[in-house]
Amino acid sequence: MRVALRLVLNVLAWAVSIPVLNVCMTALERHRILPVSGFVAAVVALVLLLWAVAIYWRCVPSAPSIVARVAYLLIFVAAMVLVGLGALWAAFWTSVATFGL
Question: Taking a C-beta distance cutoff of 8 angstroms, is the pair 52, 80 a contact?
Fold first, then answer.
């Protein structure tokens, strides 16, 4: 599998997991199984952040110079922020469609 395809598929899986986690956590909270407190939300955010770091580590190709590596990092971070914002938007509307306001 090409590196670019592997990177895109991993970022797509990361983005899809955000609405899925939101719906699951909201369902657990609404059924009073697990209250989504600050600690639980922080753990979920940390897992998503570590997953993003793993995607960068495994899927972004290495570069011969430090300038190129920093450029790859900046592009990756900017892309992940944009994808994350889109995933948060999708998570909000998925949650509204599933549970209402």
Answer: yes
Cα separation of 23 and 53, whole Å?
24
Cβ neighbours of residue 56 closer than 8 Å, sequence gap 6 or more: 73, 76
Residue 52 belongs to what H/E stretch?
Answer: helix 38-59
Q: What is the pLDDT of residues 32-73, one digit of tens each?
A: 887 878 898 899 999 999 999 999 999 988 888 999 999 999
**16 contact partners, CB below 8 Å, separation of at least 6:** 87
Distance CA 97, CA 7 (A): 30
